[in-house]
UniProtKB/TrEMBL annotation, chain A:
Location in the cell: Periplasm
InterPro entries: Bact_solute-bd_prot1, SBP
Record protein name field: Bacterial extracellular solute-binding protein
Organism name: Pacificibacter marinus
Family named by the database record: Belongs to the bacterial solute-binding protein 1 family.
Sorted UniProt keywords: Signal
Keyword Signal: yes
Broad class of the protein's primary localization: periplasm
CC annotations in GO: periplasmic space
UniProtKB/TrEMBL annotation, chain B:
Single GO biological process annotation from the record: transmembrane transport
ABC transmembrane type-1 domain segment(s): 66-281
PANTHER family cross-referenced by the UniProt entry: BLR7065 PROTEIN (PTHR43005), SPERMIDINE_PUTRESCINE TRANSPORT SYSTEM PERMEASE PROTEIN (PTHR43005:SF1)
Source species taxonomy: Bacteria, Pseudomonadati, Pseudomonadota, Alphaproteobacteria, Rhodobacterales
Gene3D superfamilies: MetI-like
Transmembrane segments: 12-35, 70-92, 101-122, 154-178, 199-218, 260-282
Protein name, entry field: Lactose transport system permease protein LacF
Gene Ontology CC annotations of this record: plasma membrane
Amino acid sequence: MLKTSISTVGGLLIATSLSTAAVAAVCTDDLKILAQPRGSLTLLEERAAEFEALSGVSFTIDFLNENDRRAKSRAEASTTGRYNVYYIDEANVALFAENEWIVPLEKHFPSEFHLDDFDPSRLTVGSYEGDLYFAPIQGGGDFLYYRKDLLDAAGITPPTTLDELKVAIKALHDPENNVYGFALRGGRGSGANVWRWMTYFRGFGGEWFDGDTPTFNSEAAIKATETYLELFQYSPPGTSTGSWTEVTEAFNSGQVALIVESSPLAGLTEDASSSAVAGKVGYTVPPRPLTGGGYGHGLAIGAKANRDEAALDCAGLFIGWATSQDQEMQRLEQGIFGDLNRQSVFASDEFAAKYSGNIATALEETAEFTTVNFWPNADWPDLGDRWGIILEELIVGSRSDIPEALNELEDYANDLIARR
Amino acid sequence: MKAKSHINKVFLGPPLFVLAVLALVPTIAAIIISFQNKELGRRGTSFVGFENYINLFSDRRFSNAMKVSLQWEAITVIGTMIVAILVAILLFETTRGRTRAIISTLLIVPVLLPRVTAAFVWKFMFNPLLGVINYPIKELTGAPIEFLSNIQTALISVAVVDIWQWGLFFAVILLKLLETLPKEPFEAARIDKARTWEIYAYVAIPMLAAPLISLTFVKMVESLRSFDLIYVMTRGGPGIVTETLDMYAFNQGFVESGRISYASAMAVLMLLTTIITFTVLFKWVRKWQTA
């Protein structure tokens, strides 16, 4: 018995050392990664020794919040490009890929980490012109989150249409008792106020472009903006210039009755250590005709910092390890719900035990309504951010003419196309 | 004589060289880039003459940024000087010895805080749901004031932080200057039955005119560097209500568009405007002082 154990352990050790030696040859320099703070990435830092044993090198992650990360990564990748791995999101895959600041991932992603295990929709948003560029760290669609206790008390069923949603919001809005009917992102940004506004715009049939011709200046955009401004009357203080953080904190602190937000909020909402509404929330699909905002963030291989094939493979190895099934199971164990992307993890018993019932059902149902709402183009961040500023001006009331605002955006879009 | 001129060169040479490298190189680079069409997300760069400068004049955000920058200068410089003068006089009249020394030390603390730290602390205090400033307002009126999200209050709220940092610091400087003034003119004014405010308005402040003008210039230059405070507290928002020129240039160059050349054109215009304004002001003040 003892002999068998020794030989098994010995065999494992030899196998491990062989595989370590095999991949250690790939990595010669420590890796630099530019990212935005995520629970899963903090977890990576805690498990850095594992990567060192696997590759022979260590890594450092520079964290910046989402807007700063976007600004810095564009400025950095277009000039010095000293990061081996970039955290990028669905909205800037086209920009990074078109400029060749990142390289296609598949060739450098070690096969033992099973790329095909990721949820296909996450891989779709990480692709540009047929090539996959990032391995997902987080992603998903939208849920309608509703406070079961408040809806039950008022005798309201979870709304399934926008009209029903409006009725429910008005009925539940009670700011004197610190309950606001709804919460929306007002702060500027293609990934902030525009991200939520797009679900109305696309839901009302709006389209961004027909070829190179802008088509967004339409009835759908006017109606979407009017609806957004109308619903903003019921959004809590601080959200008119706030984004994900402000609206989710307002919801989790119990001040909001209904909210349509990205699916990772479910993990935060059910975390009783930081949420006052754990156990009181129901989850369902966004009310029709709103579309769910399909999104994904992930890790991509930088082109400039990785000068040869070996360096590209090393960055690929890091991404493979960082997004592996083993990492995702650790995230699941620690309740980092928003950073789960693998089909094998969603299908696991551990997942079923932790997120049974309402959330799991909503996850399955919402896939049908999840679409890519933004304009998948290298110029999208520029156009989206410009609309973000104009939309914020409309929300805070420093301008009020919606058609004039859309005309201004159309002029800007035409200028963008002309500058190509 | 000859040896003396050598010493001049020895002492002036290194700092001038450092200044040339640190200031001149980026300035010349900015001027060159401003005549190009360089963008972070686009390949190929060519010279486009004055196109960026011409486009600026039809850009509503640029004219708004000019207006906001002027408002910011006026509010923060005037606010700082008024606070400094009032607090200095108050302390000069009401405190003595050790108490004055302790209060003076405390008043210097805000300016010692890094701008980013001060901005975060105040941003939290202004928070409509959790901020300490809003707590009594909510108790009294039932609703918080969104100081940093309201188009009427955002610029003034950020300016309060700037004035809090610099006004109190300048108050201590002015207090020390008041202590150095001779007592005779004050006594003469009192014998003439001048009221307290008249003594300061007609005797003390005119005697401190030169250092007050210097402090005003220091603050004017300092107020131009408002970027960090605005960036942390409002990022130029709500909308574009607090978007100063440096904030807009940064947004265009790095955050939104990656239009480096367009942002450089703004920076060059800002540099020119500042040089011209300050030269005119300096000359005007010198003429006024010698008159």
